[in-house]
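Chain A, query sequence.
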Amino acid sequence: MDDQRYCRLRVIGENLDLAGSPAALRALAAVLRGAGPAIEVPIRNGAVAQERAAGPLAIALRGAPTLHLSGDDDGLAAVWAALEAVADETETAEPGGTAPHRHVEPDGSRPLVVTGEREDSLGL
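Chain A, predicted structure.
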């Protein structure tokens, strides 16, 4: 099973919200971290495309929907770290509380919120 497919992308105003279970968030982080110059990873309702490039992190929404991430390794590492941190926080969060989340807000780019969901909220 491709765990990263259990992530989903929502558009909430200007924010892009990438949500998933701890396993899905960790799987997506691992795939993105280990990718070469460019990759597109399918998620439940679209894709996450990552391009390693010179310059700061840029986050955009492109067709179908595709969350597009580009930047140098330091910039992209902020997204990978947010995915992993939210996965850890979701596993230890109190049931019924606020969903663990992290904001990644690069200058001059769309903001991204990474949100954790409990495994059972996806029907797994």
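The mean pLDDT is 91. Residues 73-92 form the longest helix (20 residues).
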